Amino acid sequence: MSELDEWFDSVDPAMLQRLTDGKQLRDGFARFMLNYQFAIDEIMTKINILRTEFEHLHDYSPIEHVNSRLKSPESLLLKAKNRDLGLNLESIRDGVLDIAGVRIVCSFVSDAYWLAEMLSSQRDITVVTTKDYIAHPKPNGYKSLHLIVKVPVFLSESVQNVHVEVQIRTVAMDFWASLEHKIYYKYEHAIPKDILLELQEAAVVASQLDSKMERLHNEVHGPTSRR
Ligand code: 0O2
């Protein structure tokens, strides 16, 4: 009998089972998250193609920067708990639609709408929801376009349609949102009224800046024909 076999014989079978279950759970979760990473990769490729083609046809880039993130396991489990979802992968997959997130920061408002339209109309993309916080800002002043899309991920033995949250906004909207996010956490979600008011004012200024910059751009270069 090998040393390893002897060790297995001496280990409490219940403990061995728990270790195996734990490992299976971790492997299953890692596999589950991997699909979201693949979905992000698919969306990033689409964005890069749109960006490069646009740059080729016009004399500027509609995208300032793009980033992506996978929700951390802690914040994923917290969201599932807050929504009373069962703590199993199926409930989490159906109930949490922003496990994969992509944020596109555009030069101008019209670029944000153009990108949303270009992504949404691709044949392999299914748009699940669209929230237009640019036309209808949140009461605090938050502006952005939010799309929840489903993108197919081709695996060796199956095709998975995976949810991705795509946020599209301008540099000014992004600047506002990242500052507001920091303030929100600093005050533990209860921003004092006067600061809230200032944030609303800042959102209006950011909007004015967006309009002015786009108007200036069009004055100098002419309106961009996207057809
Ligand atoms: P994180 O860490 O950025 O992922 P849901 O996404 O379903 O939980 P909701 O409110 O229906 O909730 O979705 P919505 O309105 O589309 O907003 C989702 C995400 O948009 C948030 O994700 C933020 O990233 C961003 N967001 C929405 N409202 C605000 C806001 O007022 N200020 C800022 N700075 N960002 C906002 P999470 O899950 O909150 O966080």
Shape: globular
What is the name of the CATH class?
Alpha Beta
What's the number of extended β-strand segments?
A: 5
Task: State the separation between the terminal residues, measured CA to CA.
Answer: 75 Å
Largest sheet: 5 strands, mixed
Q: Could you state the oligomeric state of the chains shown? A: single chain
Describe the structure.
This protein has helices at residues 3-10, 13-57, 73-82, 89-95, 109-120, 171-186, 193-221, and strands spanning 63-70, 100-106, 126-132, 145-154, 159-170. It is α+β, with helices and mostly antiparallel strands and 227 residues long. It has one domain: Beta Polymerase, domain 2. It has a five-stranded mixed β-sheet. A hairpin with a 4-residue loop joins strand 4 and strand 5 (159-170). It is globular, with a radius of gyration of 23 Å. The termini are far apart. The mean pLDDT is 90.
Q: What keywords describe this structure?
A:
alpha+beta, globular, 227 residues, five-stranded mixed β-sheet
